[in-house]
Write a structure and sequence with these properties.
Structural class: alpha+beta
Helix content: 25-40%
Radius of gyration: 30 Å
Number of strands: 16
Oligomer: single chain
C-alpha cells in the first residue's frame, strides 16, 4: 500500500490472552464467576498474603496442552513457572506468575482462510499465567480495585509478525476465537474480558531505494474484532505520519504501549513498553516444574477433533452447504458431529445439509437449544432424509414429520409419515384433481402464469404451493409441476 509518499508494509504480530474454562483459579481454589460482588472471590493465595502457597490447577495445564496441539505446536517436556515483577494496584503480589523461557507450548502455526488464500501464521509460544485484578474508575477522586479476577488462568498465545493488514489481523482473531470455543478450552466471551487481543504493530517504509522500520507499538486489551481492526488500521496511518515528523526508527528501548479510544476511534499513548529484563524474571521458588505425562499428551493429540476451518471446507464440499451458513453449523460442535453421524448412518448428505439448515435449525431455535439437544438420533435423521430422497415424502411433509419426531423421537420417521397421512402420492389422477382445484380457485395466478412473463415464475410457484396445501402436503412436487404445465398450456381454463 502507499501512504504519504511511502510504500508501506505493515508488520503485525499478536498477543492473545485467553481465559481458560476452569471452575477455579490458576493457583488456588477460588471459584471463577463473572459479576460477583467486588473482592468476594479471594483468598490468601490470590491476595498474595505472607505464607500462602500456590497449587497448580491441573485442568488449566490440560486445556493449555489441548490448545497447543490444535495450534500445531510442540509441547514442552518440562515447563516451569517464573515471577514477572511489576507494580500495579490490581496486582496484589507485585509480581505475576507466568512462564518466561520454558513455555508449555512453542513453535506452532495456525492456518487462516483470508483474502482468497490460506494464511499461515507462525505461533512463537503459548504459555500459562495468572490474570491481574481490575481497576474501577467509577469513584470520584479515587480508583477502586476488584481482585476477583486476580489469579484467573490465562493462556497467552504469541504469534510471529506474519500479519500484514488490519483485515488479516481481524480474520486471524475471528478464527482463533472459533478455535478455542470449538475445543471447549474457553468460553471466550469478549464482553466479559475472556479473550483480549494485543497487536504489536510497526511498519517497513520504502521510498526511492531507502527503507526504514518504525518503532513497535503494542495496543493493549482490545476486546472486539471491530476495535482490533480499527486500532490496527489507525495505527498504520498514524505511524506513517509520525515518521514523517520525527524520523524515529525501531530501536531497543523505544517500544511503546497505546490504548484504543473506541469513541474517537484513535489510539492514545499510555507508557513506554518494558523490555524483558525490566520485569526481572526469575524462577518461582514455590512452584515445581511441570512435566506433562507423554501418554496424556499422546491421548490428547489422538483425540483432537477435526478443526473448524478444514471442517467448514469439508461441509461445504460434502453437504453442499452455502459458504455463509457452514461456519455457524460447524461451530455448534455437537450438532456438527450429529450431522456427520447421520451421514455415516446412510443419510443422503445433500438432503441432510438442507434439513439441518432449515427445519432442524428452526426447531432448535424455537426450543432454545442446539440441534443435537433435540434428542433425535442420527439414524432417524438419516431415515427422514432418505424418505425425501426416495420421494416417499416431500420437503414440506418432512418438516411436519420433524416437528413430530422432536416430540416423539422414539417413533421411526416412516411410521410418523403414515400416522400423519403424509406419505407422498404419485397417483397422477389424484394429483390432477388437486391441481385442477387449485387452478380453478386462483384465476389471477393462472392468468399471470399464462400471460405475464414478469410474474410467470412467481405465479407458478404460488399455484404449486396451493396444490400442496390442498393435498395436505402429499402430492409429489415433480408430478404437480408437470400437470400444472400441461393444464396451463391449454387454451381453456381447467
Amino acid at each position: 500500500m502507499r501512504i504519504g509518499g511511502f510504500v508501506v508494509q505493515p508488520i503485525i504480530g499478536m498477543e492473545i490472552h485467553v481465559q481458560l474454562a476452569t471452575r477455579t483459579k490458576m493457583f488456588c481454589g477460588c471459584p471463577l464467576e463473572f459479576g460477583a460482588p467486588p473482592n468476594s472471590l479471594t483468598c490468601p493465595v490470590c491476595l498474595g498474603l505472607p505464607g500462602a502457597l500456590p497449587v497448580i490447577n491441573a485442568e488449566a495445564v490440560d486445556l493449555a496442552i489441548r490448545t497447543g496441539i490444535a495450534l500445531n505446536g510442540k509441547i514442552s517436556s518440562t515447563t516451569r513457572w517464573d515471577r514477572k515483577s511489576y507494580y500495579y494496584p490490581d496486582l496484589p503480589k507485585n509480581y505475576q506468575i507466568s512462564q518466561f523461557d520454558h513455555p508449555i507450548c512453542y513453535g506452532g502455526f495456525f492456518e487462516v482462510p483470508c483474502e482468497g488464500r490460506i494464511l499461515k501464521v507462525r505461533i512463537r509460544r503459548a504459555h500459562l499465567e495468572e490474570d491481574a485484578g481490575k481497576n474501577a474508575h467509577d469513584f470520584e477522586g479515587c480508583t477502586g480495585v476488584d481482585l476477583n479476577r486476580a489469579g484467573t488462568p490465562l493462556l497467552e498465545i504469541v504469534t510471529e509478525p506474519d500479519l500484514e493488514s488490519a483485515e488479516q489481523a481481524r480474520e486471524f482473531a475471528v478464527q482463533l476465537h472459533r478455535l478455542v470455543r470449538y475445543l471447549g478450552v474457553s468460553n471466550a466471551d469478549m464482553q466479559k474480558g475472556q479473550m483480549r487481543f494485543e497487536p504489536n504493530i510497526n511498519l517497513l517504509l520504502m521510498r526511492e531505494g531507502e527503507s526504514w522500520r518504525t518503532p513497535i507499538v503494542e495496543v493493549k486489551n482490545l476486546n472486539s474484532f471491530r476495535s482490533l481492526y480499527g486500532a490496527v488500521n489507525y495505527e498504520i496511518h498514524r505511524q506513517v505520519e509520525a515518521f514523517a515528523q520525527d524520523g524515529l526508527t525501531a530501536q531497543v528501548g523505544n517500544k511503546s504501549n497505546r490504548g484504543w479510544d473506541d469513541g474517537r476511534e484513535v489510539t492514545v499513548a499510555q507508557r513506554e513498553k518494558e523490555e524483558a529484563h525490566d520485569y526481572r524474571y526469575f524462577p518461582d521458588p514455590d512452584l515445581p516444574a511441570v512435566r506433562p505425562d507423554p501418554a496424556r499428551v499422546a491421548w490428547l493429540r489422538e483425540h483432537t477433533p477435526e478443526l473448524p476451518a478444514p471442517r467448514t471446507e469439508r461441509f461445504i464440499s460434502e453437504y453442499k452447504l452455502p459458504e455463509k451458513d457452514a461456519p455457524a453449523l460447524v461451530d455448534h460442535h455437537d450438532s456438527a458431529d450429529l450431522l456427520d453421524h447421520a451421514a455415516e448412518a446412510g443419510g443422503d448428505k445433500v438432503i441432510l445439509g438442507k434439513h439441518f439448515l432449515s427445519f432442524w435449525s428452526k426447531l432448535a431455535n424455537e426450543r432454545g437449544c442446539e440441534i443435537a439437544q433435540l434428542g433425535v438420533t442420527a439414524a432417524s435423521l438419516a431415515e427422514l432424509a432418505n424418505l425425501v430422497r426416495d420421494s416417499v415424502v416431500n420437503a414440506t411433509a418432512a418438516a411436519q414429520i420433524a416437528g413430530a419426531l422432536a416430540d416423539r423421537p422414539e417413533i421411526p420417521p416412516a411410521t410418523l409419515a403414515r400416522e400423519l397421512g403424509l406419505v407422498q402420492s404419485n397417483d397422477r389422477g389424484e394429483i390432477e384433481g388437486w391441481v385442477a382445484t387449485a387452478l380453478a380457485e386462483n384465476d389471477k395466478a393462472v392468468r399471470d402464469a399464462r400471460d405475464n412473463p414478469k410474474k410467470r415464475g412467481a405465479a407458478r410457484g404460488f399455484l404449486t404451493g396451493q396444490v400442496m396445501k390442498i393435498s395436505g402436503g402429499k402430492a409429489d412436487p415433480k408430478v404437480v409441476g408437470e400437470l400444472i404445465d400441461e393444464l396451463l398450456a391449454n387454451d381453456e381454463p381447467p
